[in-house]
Amino acid sequence: MREILKYGKCFVCGDENECGLKVKFFEEDEVAKAEFIVDQRFQGYKDILHGGIISALLDEVMIKAVLARNILVVTAQIEVKFKKPVKVGEKLFMEGVIKEKKGRIFLTEGKITNEGSALVAWGSGKYVVASQRMRDLLKENLE
């Protein structure tokens, strides 16, 4: 497994963002993978992970599936389906894959499971290859 490109100040993967999640993403056999232990700071209702955090995690694991190929993209659309509540303290496992490429557009899927292998959330995404100007800006800041 190898670590996938990241931007240090990213809320999800950046290690320079003091209020961020600091999740490390890896690529294995064309699948982006990560693990995350839910911290109480990110609860929505009492002891339950906020749905926005789940959505951010899915967006990130899906975009990382493309970034693992060293192709810089931006999110155009995501769909999230919440399947099961996630409790504070739970360990989550994320996976993201590219399902199809249509010109400059990558269609992806992502899932989050818990330690019992239960599906807690599923997502699909549409990512567009970044413009040359955006790629130039992004490349300066990726690690």
How does this model look, in words?
The chain is of the alpha+beta class and 143 residues long. It starts with a strand and ends with a helix. The mean pLDDT is 94. A hairpin with a 4-residue loop joins strand 6 (105-114) and strand 7 (119-129). A seven-stranded antiparallel sheet has the order 1-2-3-5-6-7-4, covered by helices on one side. The chain has a single domain (2-141), classed as Hotdog Thioesterase (Thiol Ester Dehydrase, Chain A, Roll). The chain contains two helices and seven strands.
SSE blueprint:
Blueprint: E1 2-3, E2 25-28, E3 31-37, H1 51-67, E4 73-82, E5 91-102, E6 105-114, E7 119-129, H2 132-141
Antiparallel strand pairs: 1-2, 2-3, 3-5, 4-7, 5-6, 6-7
